[in-house]
Amino acid sequence: MRRRMHGRLLVILILLMVLTVSLTACSQAVPESADRISSPVNLEIPAAGTWVLERRLLDDTTEAAEADDVLTGETVGFSPDTMLYAGQMFRDISYKIRRVNVHEYFLHKNREILKKLDYENNEIMVVNVYSKDNFLFEFIIDSKGEKIALVDDRYYVMRKVSEEVSDVQEAAVHETLESGIKEAVAHKQPVRSGLLLGVRIPVQTADGLGDFKYGTYWISCINSTLRPVLYTDDIYLPRMDGFWKLEVEKKPGSSGLEDSLRAYKVTNTYNKGGDRPAVTGYRNVSERVETRLRRAILYVGNDYACVENIIYDTDSNTAGAVFEKTLRTLPVDNLSNVDGIKISDMAGENGAMAMENAIAEVLANSGYEGIVIIDDDAQQKNFALYRKTGHWFFKGRIDPDRQGHLPYMDFNLNLLPPANMVAYDVLHVPWKEMKDKLPNAIDIYTSPNRDLAVILTRSHILLYTIEGRKLSGEPIAKIRLEEGSTVIMAEWSMGEYVARWENSFIKNNDTHVVFEGASGGEAE
């Protein structure tokens, strides 16, 4: 009996070992879907070792050499849990591998580069590298195994120089520390801060309903010395994969004019006038063309935008009669094709519970009886972000009868926006400190470097340096705001990225100076 049981246990053990080996072998295969490979579970990484960006791939329209091309010769290293790039070592590395159609991948990229690649079955591999879920680096692998790095819409051939990355990492870190110490001793490192500040501005229209236009300010300083403040129309949005533009255009709908949001990536070959995607909409300049849907942008972040949809009742005898007002949060990558995401998609079960509890409280205190939420999915989408006391908060909305007869009600959601929606929301000057000094101020933004505060009144942008946790005695700039302007975007940059953002802002937009900087004053 014991021998028979022992035999059964032995067979089971052997089967488990075979199954384990099979699963391990499968886990090391390159996935064909967009699966994330998290270190150190899988040690088979797509480009282990040390590489150099040997040369840049040029197309027929690219100059043979550009003064700002400083990446050729840069060292890149990959190990299961670290990455070396630009002399810095990043930890907690993960890899996302995709097998993609090469023509779809290059649809909005430089298609001339296709001539330099080798691809079978119209497929290539795309590898994205992340550190703690923050995007760092992207490269592609063609059918011959050649690896091409994509950095700021430029393509570099990667050549392997070592199978190991540890020695190079240690040398690079040591060199970085040594050079940093020497430079710090020679002179104090400059502190650089930059801000892309997006605003919504009300305008009058021929139909009397009013509308909005949008613009972006570029504000920057070095060692608390203000540089020229620039302005351009529309929203210039920094994202993980580069800069994008966000615009609102008018399009004819079945019942009148409708606002349509459009976001598109700006490439390094973008021409201020020439490469802009075609606009099929038009402005509402005639009272004969009725407005059906108007959208106001409330917030723009790296991946999401919040809007208010105002639907007008074109069948009503009353001009400008509103049929419905709703809030929506949309992915920037899919602004026109999605009717908003649900709060549970953004914040999980806590988001759904926060919405449910807030609605119950609002209805209990409303005085309305017998109101029932019929479409829970639609209600879960009825939320957005708004500013209060220097921070971003969630706001929900309920339309009691969905017919416009009863006024809609807004309510706060007891929920903090997640980091993938609002990446930075810290005040280094207390709200009370700001209000005590500037009672007319309505909003404040402070830099991560704790050197610059951007304060808004109803008529001006005031710029202050920060001393400790207090504002400097006098503003270093006072910039006039168009009446009714509201901030919808605030994206900060630091260090070497400040110059990159400024160069991109100037190169890809029609800008004008609104403040001359340290040596000048407000531009009229």
Content of β-strand: 35-45%
| End-to-end Cα distance | 99 Å
Widest beta sheet: strand line-up: 1-6-7-8-9-10-2-3-4-5
- Helix fraction bin: 10-25%
Mind summarizing the main beta sheet? 10 strands, antiparallel
H/I helix tally: 7
Mean pLDDT: 78
Shape: globular
Can you give a write-up of this model?
The chain is an alpha+beta fold and 524 residues long. It has two domains: 142 residues, no CATH class; 324 residues, no CATH class. Helices cover 19% and strands 40% of the residues. It contains seven helices and 30 strands. It has a ten-stranded antiparallel sheet with strand order 1-6-7-8-9-10-2-3-4-5. A hairpin with a 2-residue loop joins strand 26 and strand 27. The longest helix is centred in the N-terminal third of the chain and has 26 residues. It starts with a helix and ends in a 9-residue tail after the last strand.
Give the key terms.
7 helices; disordered N terminus; 524 residues; six-stranded antiparallel sheet; alpha+beta
Any chance you could write out the topology, listing elements then pairs?
Elements: H1 2-27, E1 35-38, E2 49-57, E3 75-78, E4 82-85, E5 88-91, E6 93-101, H2 102-105, E7 123-131, E8 134-141, E9 147-151, E10 154-162, H3 166-186, E11 192-203, E12 211-222, E13 225-226, E14 229-233, E15 235-239, E16 242-253, E17 256-266, E18 291-300, E19 304-312, E20 322-331, H4 343-366, H5 376-380, E21 383-388, E22 391-398, E23 409-412, H6 431-437, E24 443-446, E25 452-456, E26 460-467, E27 470-471, E28 477-480, E29 486-494, H7 497-507, E30 512-515
Parallel strand pairs: 17-18
Antiparallel strand pairs: 1-6, 2-3, 2-10, 3-4, 4-5, 6-7, 7-8, 8-9, 9-10, 11-12, 11-29, 12-13, 12-14, 14-30, 15-16, 16-17, 18-19, 19-20, 21-22, 22-23, 24-25, 25-26, 26-27, 26-28
